[in-house]
């Protein structure tokens, strides 16, 4: 029997494919605005939503989406309006979110430490058909936002002041990006877990940044890397008894190290070529300047020194 003969592996691979696409698609914007650890804070808040789902005997994924979205909006509003820095706000949500999740799961009649472990670190066998339907809908929504509004989101992440001058709704786009990040965290928690989801949002972007120079190319390569490590890591766990989240993240980090080692000589060669190209255009030398002295009396008053006009001599173009 092959890996695709088992229904739970079919669901796991499909979930890994969707997570590999959505996590880097959002992570590239978070890295651009230097909020790489935002996924960690949202993940801790989402744990409270998971506990709330067990307590109310409803879908933990849906309650996690709602709770994480509220937490992401609070993070953005605190960052924008409050005197408290974004790092402090994230720290408060870190501790409060995970404490609330543990408390609610313990209070739930069907909650247990096993359920908590599956959401913290991911579990292939726990991905149900209902989870796949919810993950698919959420993944499509995330990709629609990140790809359809990529120019506006890039402008806001790059320079908010410039975005305001151009007339973009900066606050609305910031809140939309925060909610999209929250949805992405809940999409990925069934595969890599809430504690490792931020790594899948950041590490593929870091790999792509070493190979590309433009934002569009970085985003495209990050999605490719995310899909590659997610699907391969999930398939590897079928043959090796290992947790899927840790396997996927370690594959991504290994690829980051490998690309870094291979890209260093290439970057040095590019830097030398750029320096050589810049050195081809030499600044004007003193020999290239012609000094013309005017004759006394020609345009000057008697008794005055002749004026001196300095004109650059024409420089012949070097043969190519």
TrEMBL record:
GO terms for biological process: response to zinc ion; transmembrane transport. Its main location: membrane. The keyword Transport applies. It comes from the Bacteria. It is found in: Cell membrane; Membrane. SUPFAM superfamilies: ABC transporter involved in vitamin B12 uptake, BtuC. It is a multi-pass membrane protein. Signal peptide: none annotated. One of its GO terms (cellular component) is ATP-binding cassette (ABC) transporter complex. Keywords: Membrane, Transmembrane, Transmembrane helix, Transport. The chain crosses the membrane at residues 12-31, 51-75, 87-108, 132-150, 162-181, 187-207, 219-240, 246-266. Residues 297-320 are annotated as: Disordered. Belongs to the ABC-3 integral membrane protein family. This is ABC transporter. It comes from Embleya hyalina. The lineage of its organism: Bacteria, Bacillati, Actinomycetota, Actinomycetes, Kitasatosporales.
């Amino acid at each position: 029997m092959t890996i695709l003969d088992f229904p739970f592996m079919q669901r796991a691979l499909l979930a890994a494919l969707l997570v590999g696409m959505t996590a880097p698609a959002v992570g590239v914007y978070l890295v651009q605005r230097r909020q790489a650890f935002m996924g960690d804070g949202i993940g801790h808040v989402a744990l409270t939503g998971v506990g709330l789902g067990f307590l109310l005997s409803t879908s933990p994924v849906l309650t996690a989406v709602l709770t994480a979205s509220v937490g992401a909006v609070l993070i953005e509003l605190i960052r924008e309006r409050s005197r408290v820095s974004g790092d402090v706000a994230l720290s408060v949500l870190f501790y409060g979110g995970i404490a609330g999740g543990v408390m609610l799961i313990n209070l739930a009649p069907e909650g247990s430490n096993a359920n908590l472990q599956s959401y913290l670190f991911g579990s292939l066998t726990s991905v149900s058909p209902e989870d796949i339907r919810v993950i698919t809908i959420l993944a499509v929504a995330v990709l629609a936002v990140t790809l359809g509004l990529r120019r506006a989101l890039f402008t806001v992440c790059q320079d908010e002041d410039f975005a305001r001058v151009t007339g973009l709704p900066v606050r609305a786009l910031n809140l939309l990006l925060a909610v999209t990040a929250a949805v992405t965290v809940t999409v990925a928690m069934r595969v890599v877990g809430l504690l490792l989801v931020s790594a899948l949002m950041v590490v593929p972007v870091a790999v792509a940044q070493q190979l590309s120079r433009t934002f569009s190319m970085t985003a495209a390569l990050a999605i490719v890397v995310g899909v590659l490590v997610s699907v391969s890591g999930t398939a590897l766990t079928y043959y090796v008894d290992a947790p899927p989240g840790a396997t996927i993240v370690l594959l991504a980090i290994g690829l980051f190290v490998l690309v870094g080692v291979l890209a260093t000589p290439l970057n040095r060669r590019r830097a030398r070529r750029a320096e050589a190209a810049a050195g081809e255009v030499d600044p004007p030398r003193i020999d290239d300047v012609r000094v013309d002295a005017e004759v006394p009396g020609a345009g000057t008053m008697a008794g005055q020194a002749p004026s001196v006009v300095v004109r650059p001599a024409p420089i012949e173009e070097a043969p190519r």
